[in-house]
């Protein structure tokens, strides 16, 4: 909260974040796109050797991807249609991606920076991640990211294999008395809203105290 002091924009926006957050989700796609480009084209100077080794192939594949995307736009009738196609496809993709990510993460408990759980990789993932209950539509719509627990435990595993390891993860949790949180869409959505509202209430109280000189 200390970093928010004096930030009038945050003071106006955060207390109402649970009301508007869903409408801001599409913009995250554009943010993640810029972050991807920034990260990939700085990999050659990374501290990690594995990133430096893979820098060229990552950069070439990103260039190839966007070459194919822009080639599609070339065959569209005019610039207006191209712009509309780009915005609709990217913003809708952004909504889906960021919606499942917020569901997976914001609907769970949060821990302080010095909590012992932070030193246990498996426990940290299991206590801070919630899966969206699998199904034909859910799996197709979110492309496997609804198996976020498995994705966190095995971050390099191809998404089409996450469903296969789900029973193994459940078995591990049962044997070790660990939670395995998986809920339907609406339950997780309500928990996400509740978390955002709790943070909004804390922020609102904080800003009110600052305004009153407390």
From TrEMBL:
GO cellular component: a single term: membrane
Domain of life: Eukaryota
One Pfam match: FA_desaturase
Membrane topology (UniProt): Multi-pass membrane protein
Keyword Transcription regulation on entry: no
Transmembrane segments annotated in the record for this chain: 20-43, 55-75, 87-106
Keyword NADP applies: no
Matching CDD domains: Delta6-FADS-like
Domain Fatty acid desaturase: 20-181
GO molecular function: oxidoreductase activity, acting on paired donors, with oxidation of a pair of donors resulting in the reduction of molecular oxygen to two molecules of water
Keywords assigned: Lipid metabolism, Membrane, Oxidoreductase, Transmembrane, Transmembrane helix
Subcellular compartments: Membrane
Protein name: Fatty acid desaturase domain-containing protein
Higher taxonomy: Eukaryota, Metazoa, Ecdysozoa, Nematoda, Chromadorea
């Amino acid at each position: 909260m200390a970093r928010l002091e004096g930030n009038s924009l945050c003071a106006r926006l955060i207390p109402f974040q649970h009301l508007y957050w869903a409408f801001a989700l599409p913009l995250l796609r554009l943010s993640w796109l810029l972050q991807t480009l920034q990260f990939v084209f700085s990999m050659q100077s990374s501290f990690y050797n594995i990133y430096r080794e893979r820098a060229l192939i990552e950069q070439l594949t990103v260039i190839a991807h966007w070459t194919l995307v822009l080639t599609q736009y070339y065959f569209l009738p005019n610039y207006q249609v191209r712009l509309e196609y780009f915005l609709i496809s990217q913003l809708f993709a952004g909504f889906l991606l960021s919606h499942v990510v917020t569901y997976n993460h914001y609907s769970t408990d949060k821990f302080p920076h010095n909590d012992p759980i932070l030193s246990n990789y498996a426990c940290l993932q299991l206590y801070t991640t919630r899966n969206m209950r699998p199904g034909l539509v859910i799996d197709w719509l979110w492309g496997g990211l609804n198996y976020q627990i498995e994705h966190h435990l095995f971050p390099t595993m191809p998404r089409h294999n996450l469903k296969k390891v789900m029973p193994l993860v459940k078995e591990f949790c049962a044997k070790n008395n660990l939670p395995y949180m998986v809920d339907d869409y609406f339950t997780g959505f309500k928990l996400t809203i509740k978390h955002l509202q709790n943070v909004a209430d804390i922020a609102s109280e904080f800003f009110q105290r600052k305004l009153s000189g407390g």
